[in-house]
Amino acid sequence: MKITPILFACLATQLICAQSEPGLAFRVHVVDSINKSPVGGASVVLDKDRARRISGRTDRAGVFAGRSPAAGGHLLNVARNGYRMARGAIMGTRIELNAGTETDVTVEMMPLGVVAGRVIDQYGDPVSHAIVRTEKRQSLPGQDPFYESDAFAVTDDLGQYRVADVEPGKHYLAVEYSSTHEESAAGTSSRYRWPKTAGLVLYPDATSIEQAQQVETVAGETKQLNDIHLKIQPAITISGKIKPAPAGTGPSLSLRRTTQLGLATSAMVQAASSKPDGTFKLEALPGAYVLTASDPKTGRASKPLTLNVRDESISNIELELTTGFEIRGRITVDGTGSADLSKLRLHLGGSPVNVDSNGVFQANLTDGIGDYWLQGLPEGWYVRDVSLAGRRLTGRRFAVELGVSDLAIVLSPRGARVEVTFETTTGGLPPVMVTLLPDSGAIPDAESALHSEPNATGKAVLTSVPPGVYHVFALDASSWPLFMRPDILMEKHRAGAPQLRVAEGERKTLVVPLLKVEPE
């Protein structure tokens, strides 16, 4: 066969273009971590920085190939429904692209589990539009334990559900139904005869987390459960009277679930207002609650009342307003520094509090449990000590009794300064964040922990550092979600974080490596 001049010219042009195509070649193979079969249709993102991102999907052979305009470190992330990356940090894994060679990478994806079954009511009929969700216990520094859902499904007309993308391991399973939610979501009337109906059960047939059983899922497998019986009933009425009737306007009642489940049909805290004569009526699902009343105008509050809501309405409750939760406090400065204390921003229990120029403040809280925030400190200042009702606080969370409690906050203008640089990495320094966590004592929550990013000179500068011994965590972008879990950093990764000791007012400079976060 003769090659015509036109065909030869086309082939030559393609060859020259192929040889001169800019960028560094890479090839990503995505496979199932259990059976090693290719995973097609996976989303692949290779990120050098925000301005240079390559993305695409794997073909049927589980391969995605491309070119990056820059050499050095890249963040590789692969995602697909029903899977998660089996190796690498939370946000992905770092790979190096080098000139003169094609980078070939294999990413293993762990297949997630599935929980399936059926929901029926007390009459044996299937329940449609019920929400079935996993619940996993979480515990963050400075906060009460709570339950978080990361997978859910809605039952069909046969009451069947299939909760996909469930992480392997043990989970509680919550099933909830609300006729209001069904009518809003489906646009049809509920088949139940009562005006407003609802139901809540924790697998297999419990109304409290203490009585519930956990369901264990395995990677790549479906866990088939027996029928779950959900009792559908009218919402339970809780009624009574506040004495004396609140004089202020706004919510005067708080009904808080004691188990902090992440539900869609029932709020964690239900706020309501009483009538002018102090009478009130609330509706709730079965479960354990704490009911309190307060007067927004006077700050007076009732003692918390624990309610165990079952099948029958609760009436004739009397909530007597007494002295309320009052906090009187002062902010003082330890040392020779001075500042306009009235410019500080103080929050107690979620509400802003005015501080005068002498540091004196007063607040009436609607609840005896909350957090405190103090912002706007001058650079180099830190909170040296906080004590409430004579007890030293080690975190932002506090609890007070009815009556007056004294809050003392001591500031110091002699915070330490720490400058952090990083060990040399191939391809330059990737996006990095640094946090300091104390070696002993209470672990701060994510918002309270000291953290910084490198400036234009490549240094991460932390000021207002209290004296003490710390671990220095330097994480690249693939592990940034760990900054929201200081407790996990200290529990699992403290051995890889250099230790630092600083005195009050001291300046320290140190070089640290990037923390290597191994997959779980």
From TrEMBL:
<protein>
    <recommendedName>
        <fullName>Carboxypeptidase regulatory-like domain-containing protein</fullName>
    </recommendedName>
</protein>
<dbReference type="InterPro" id="IPR013784">
    <property type="entry name" value="Carb-bd-like_fold"/>
</dbReference>
<dbReference type="GO" id="GO:0030246">
    <property type="term" value="F:carbohydrate binding"/>
</dbReference>
